[in-house]
Design a protein that fits this description.
With 475 residues, the protein is of the alpha/beta class. The chain is built from 13 helices and 18 strands. A six-stranded mixed sheet has the order 3-2-1-4-6-5, with helices on both faces. Strands 17-16-7-8-9-18 form a six-stranded mixed sheet. Strands 11-10-12 form a three-stranded mixed sheet.
Length: 475
């Protein structure tokens, strides 16, 4: 499985934590994404990553995206059935906690092999980041406020608790009342590889749809704090605007605007609901970026493909979808409106498609789904570009952004053309930012400042948003 776990670490001040850590002390950084979860173990004395593991989020069985999981969590209790069914909040909480327990065990086993002979790792701190909804499920906070406008989360996080409180959903009085654990959960809860009293830090969120993962990514991208009260000499001034995007089902976008003579520095944030096309979820032959997935489509007189693992093609992943769209458009297999023009094949229902291989095809509806997704992201990026007086440095974060070809993305109108030569790939910036907070109290304070002073923009409320969106659908 190709899940992006590497990321760009922000600068770590040398004089922030005077406590000298022993060789056995370790920290764990966690990025709980809607689709994937990544866990890394760090030596606190050496500031070195010892092991990283990543898996698909087991909550996906309750809904592929955030909206479906919120709906599952807020469903009314089932009545009239003799079958014992967990409530939504309990099912989602226990699913992620049991997965984290298993991943912690696996990661620490791998890390112990690299720690050195005779060293038994002792986890003394944990940082868990993620979007607002995922963190709410982990802490067993109710998500009713995220189901409808004005989209108010139960917590914006930015606090420390213990692993025992997290596991049992007793972080504070806002936690929902959970069902008694099932026999399977009782086995998980009988012991933990972590000490129950280990402190767990949850970085702050900006709002309902701009989560702690975006704040951590802003740290990795080098976003300064918009306020000067906590700025330190270790932080170099940033004079150029920065534009950050983590493209996925819900694309988070942040823009840092430096101060000018008449205006202070600002951070603007928004999110674009792209849907699951870039995760290849609503694509006929869509699949994850694992062995057998087409990740690149090439034209050399005929259509050719590159397959992850070099074996037979089984489907197409998100980056392969973008590559296919760009290659088909450049070589006039599809027109500007996305309509298939040549190499037409017919499916069993009579609809047309383009065969990438004998086993993998793109239907007309697949191309339309890609257009709808790319239009949402392009509209958000273009709107934020208009807020900046100068062309920003474009920081592309996340697993999808790490593998997508920027030229292809500009060709299909996913990324504005003016950003093509301004792009910096950050990898899993959320995990890197969380890891940095294992070492730095000042970075935690900076994250709080960034979240507190970021302005969240609701794109749907922009007067001409719908027209902008429709105008961006074509290639």
């Amino acid at each position: 499985m190709q899940i992006e776990t590497e990321g760009v670490m922000p600068e770590l001040p040398e004089d922030l934590d005077p406590v000298k850590n022993t060789f056995s002390e370790a920290g764990i950084a966690v990025d709980v994404g809607t689709t994937t979860i990544a866990v890394s173990v760090w030596s606190l004395s050496q500031r070195k990553c010892l092991a990283t593991v990543a898996e698909k989020n087991s909550q996906m069985r309750y809904g592929y995206d955030v909206i479906r999981r919120i709906s599952f969590a807020t469903r009314p209790p089932l009545t009239g059935s003799s079958q014992v069914v967990e409530s939504g909040p309990s099912a989602l909480h226990y699913a992620v906690i049991s997965q984290l327990e298993r991943m912690f065990s696996l990661a620490l086993t791998q890390a112990s092999q690299k720690a050195g002979r005779g060293i038994q790792l002792d986890v003394t701190r944990v940082v868990i980041t993620g979007n607002t909804t995922m963190l709410s499920f982990i802490c067993a906070f109710p998500v009713d406020g995220l189901a409808a406008a004005p989209f108010t989360p139960a917590s914006r996080f930015g606090f420390t608790t213990t692993w025992d409180n997290v596991r049992h959903g007793t972080v504070n009085e806002k936690c929902a009342k959970l069902d008694s654990p099932t026999p399977q959960m009782l086995q998980v809860f009988s012991s933990s590889i972590l000490n129950p009293s280990v402190p767990v830090y949850f970085p702050p969120c900006v709002g309902a749809f701009i989560g702690a993962d975006t704040v951590c990514a802003m740290l990795s991208a080098g976003f300064p704090s918009p306020v000067s009260e906590h700025n330190s000499s270790w932080e170099a001034p940033v004079k150029a605007p920065l534009l950050l995007a983590d493209i996925g089902t819900n694309t988070e976008i942040a823009l840092y605007i430096p101060s000018s003579e008449d205006k202070p520095a600002r951070i603007l944030c928004t999110s674009a609901a792209a849907g699951p096309a870039f995760e290849a979820a609503n694509i006929s032959c869509g699949m994850s970026s694992t062995d057998g997935a087409i990740d690149r489509v090439i034209y050399n007189g005929n259509l050719d493909v590159h397959v992850i693992g070099e074996g037979a093609a089984k489907g197409v992943c998100g980056s392969g979808l973008i590559s296919a769209g760009a290659t088909l458009f450049r070589n006039r297999y599809i027109d500007k409106a996305g309509v298939i023009q040549k190499s037409v094949s017919k499916l069993g229902d009579g609809s047309v498609c383009i065969q990438l291989t004998p086993a993998v095809y793109l239907s007309q509806q697949d191309i339309r789904n890609m257009q709808l997704a790319k239009s949402a992201v392009f509209t958000g990026l273009k709107y934020m570009l208009e807020r900046s007086s100068n062309l920003p440095v474009f920081c592309l974060a996340g697993g999808f952004g790490s593998h997508v070809d920027v030229s292809d993305a500009c060709t299909i109108g996913l990324i504005p053309k003016e950003l093509e030569n301004r792009c910096v790939h950050l990898g899993n910036a959320a995990l890197a930012g969380a890891a940095a907070m294992l070492f730095s109290k000042a970075l935690r304070q900076k994250a709080i400042d960034i979240a507190k002073h970021s302005v969240q923009i609701n794109l749907a409320a922009v007067p001409d948003f719908q027209q902008r969106y429709l105008d961006s659908i074509e290639f």
